[in-house]
Amino acid sequence: MKPRFRIAVIGAGRAGRLHAVNASQSISSAELSCIVEADPEVGNKVGDELGVPAFTDLEQALAGAAFDGVVIATPTFTHAQLAVLAAGAGKHVFCEKPMALTLDECDEMSLAADEAGVVFEVGFVRRFQPEFVEAKSRIEAGEIGRPMLVKSLTRGPGLPPPWAHELHRSNGMLAEVNSHDFDCVRWLTGSEIERVFAETANFKGAERGVTAPDYYDNAVVTLRFVSGALGTIDGTCPADYGYDARVEVLGTEGLLVVGQNQATSLLKIRARGAGEVPTYVSWSQRFEAGYRGELASFVKTALAGAVPEVGAADGRAAVAAVRASNRSWLEGRPVLVASESVA
Ligand SMILES: NC(=O)c1ccc[n+]([C@@H]2O[C@H](COP(=O)([O-])OP(=O)(O)OC[C@H]3O[C@@H](n4cnc5c(N)ncnc54)[C@H](O)[C@@H]3O)[C@@H](O)[C@H]2O)c1
What we know:
The protein has 343 residues and is of the alpha/beta class. It folds into two domains: 5-124 and 290-311, NAD(P)-binding Rossmann-like Domain (Rossmann fold, 3-Layer(aba) Sandwich), CATH 3.40.50.720; 127-285 and 319-339, Dihydrodipicolinate Reductase, domain 2 (2-Layer Sandwich). The protein contains twelve helices and 15 strands. It has helices spanning 14-25, 40-50, 58-64, 79-88, 103-116, 130-140, 167-170, 172-176, 179-189, 283-286, 288-304, 312-331; strands at 5-10, 30-36, 54-55, 69-72, 92-96, 120-123, 147-155, 193-201, 218-225, 230-236, 244-251, 254-258, 270-271, 274-275, 335-336. The strands form three sheets. The chain has a seven-stranded mixed beta sheet with strand order 12-11-7-10-9-8-15. Strands 3-2-1-4-5-6 form a six-stranded parallel beta sheet, sandwiched between helices. A hairpin with a 2-residue loop joins strand 13 (270-271) and strand 14 (274-275). Residues 10-16, 36-39, 42, 57, 73-76, 78, 96-97, 123, 125, 161, 176, 283 line the site of nicotinamide-adenine-dinucleotide.
């Protein structure tokens, strides 16, 4: 029997626990080696549940456990340091989105992976979710002609974790929630985003006790692509009614819609826990297949020493678009994504 690919999951919060369960139970060619979690209570709980040891930092884990790759599922502001350390120790890296806070950090991470000859993959789960994968292949097959107009939205229930309220530690909701949309529209249209113009609003922050300056819980970004196509991305978190991710691509010869588009009623109301349309309750439920698929892809790519389906350049492009959008909102003007500086 071939040896299995051993994974250390770093960060055992919302995303990390899900990856740890998938590494432990869903991928036949992989096994969970250990948990690395700064909070020992959280780490030991998940470690005990999945029958693996828990360490409180990556250096300890590198010294005390054997593994081939890491899954980084810690707050965004820690990604670069952990990825560089893991790659430097010869470990393949799967990094949750957003890849990092700055383009400088993205460049450091991809250089470290290149120098070490390890695979670096970014967790853009929609690339592995069956209906999105089908959408991409049908666009590529020419079924809707050339993309002209793309609309992508993501809404999530509940407040993001406190570290994600602060713009300087997370790049805000556009990074935490809408990174997926920025990646998805680039992928589906096959074009880079050239220019963005963003507006944001804060409706629920004060009532939910958020005090971070620059916090926003709603955003709309207008996009112009290098190909000439146009688009919008919007986001809301918390949306309360449930988790909602939809995308529409209008091409020169047809319309492609991922998500609901039924001509059954002209008015639909979705409310907290009720309503006329059932909703997904969480991102982990909505993209269950995608989370298993992205980890399986990482393991397969690392075992084969191949090029990852979603690499550092994709992670960097989404960080650039998010930062340009935040700057557009803060400065009240359209911003060229290519003008985003590295720092
Ligand atoms: N793909 C998705 O749909 C999706 C969904 C949720 C979160 N995420 C991403 O996953 C990452 C984590 O988000 P989350 O919501 O799980 O956060 P979280 O706050 O729930 O969990 C983060 C965990 O990391 C631990 N941690 C912090 N620094 C650490 C370090 N240096 N070493 C080890 N552990 C450390 C914290 O103690 C915490 O338990 C973020 O990048 C986020 O954007 C992605």
